[in-house]
Amino acid sequence: MANATNYKFDFFNVTFPSEYVAHVEINRPEKLNAFKEIMWLNLSAIFKKISHDPEVRAVVLTGAGDRAFTAGLDVQAASQGTLTSAAPLDPARKANSLRRHILDFQACITAVEQCEKPVLALLHGIAYGLALDLALACDIRHATRTTRFSVKEVDIGLAADIGTLSRLPHAVGNASFVKEVALSGREFGGDEALARGLVSRVYGCKEEGWEGVLGLAREIAGKSPVAVVGTKEIVNFSRGRTVEDGLRYTAVWNAGYLQTRDVKDAMLSGLEKKKAVFSKL
Q1: Where are the annotated coiled coils located (predicted)?
Q2: What is the pLDDT of residues 110-128, one digit of tens each?
Q3: What is the pLDDT along the chain (281 residues), one digit of tens a residue?
Q4: Which of 64, 48, 58 is nearest to 21 (CA)?
Q5: Cα 41 vs. chain centroid, distance in angstroms?
Q6: Non-local CB neighbours of 252 within 8 Å, separated by 6+ positions
Q7: For residue 148, what pLDDT is reported?
Q8: What DSSP letter does each residue of 121-184 carry, written as one string?
Q9: Tally of CA atoms within 13 A in the half-sphere of 191 that contains its CB
Q10: CA–CA gap between residue 27 and residue 34 (Å, rounded)
């Protein structure tokens, strides 16, 4: 099992509740788990580390406390940072500085999507703004019925710029719904998120959700890590590409990754009615 002492990061709890399963908990409940800069930098560091950790095969992402997965960006902290820099820059140079800042922020959230291991998010309570950016970078999203989603950025005077406007259309496949919630900033709940395809399962409460999502993570972690990594990679690659492109990439990928003992071990386990044990990746 992975060593939790290697995952000491401010504002996050990283634990290992089951073999090959990591639990990453956003831990700033007194501020509704709202993000300030050090948090998204730490988030990126955590997921880059997990990506190459042979002791981890699946990840569960949650928020601490009962009130929020995350309320999004800590607006008060942001108002004292890059967005209000008093440096005497001309408009072009200020724009370039902001562009770099936004790209850095985007890259930190994309680190979740680029993690080799499947990431399962359990959303509860308030899930505003950055919560959707982050959840949409995850592979599987579950929620409670009382989760309150909102693409909140329009209410603070900007277009969402960390991933929601790019990933949400792919997740739900409904441009009208995307524009409705992004332009109005209106709240919607777990049942509507399920109906729209934003999440794949809803629960009555956070505790029930934790049992469900942890059970699924354990199930995934019991599969061949070669097969799991390949499946995530190919599905992500195929998004936005033609079927032919996806098939060609799959052929090239499996030309290498089929050369694994895991295929034989998985087949034998089915024939012999026993659980397969796979080597670390």
Answers
A1: none
A2: 999 999 999 999 999 999 9
A3: 788 888 999 999 999 999 999 999 999 999 999 999 999 999 999 999 999 999 999 999 999 999 999 999 998 877 676 555 556 789 998 999 999 999 999 999 999 999 999 999 999 999 999 999 999 999 999 999 999 999 999 998 999 999 999 999 999 999 999 999 999 999 999 999 999 999 999 999 999 999 999 999 999 999 999 999 999 999 999 999 999 999 999 999 999 999 999 998 888 887 777 888 999 99
A4: 58
A5: 15
A6: none
A7: 98
A8: EEE-BEEETHHHHHHHTSSEEEEETT-EEE-GGGGGTS---SSHHHHHHHHH--HHHHHHHHHH
A9: 3
A10: 9
Give the domains, in start order, of the chain with CATH numbers.
4-221 (3.90.226.10), 225-272 (1.10.12.10)
Neighbours of 95 (CB within 10 A): 11
The model's pTM: 0.94
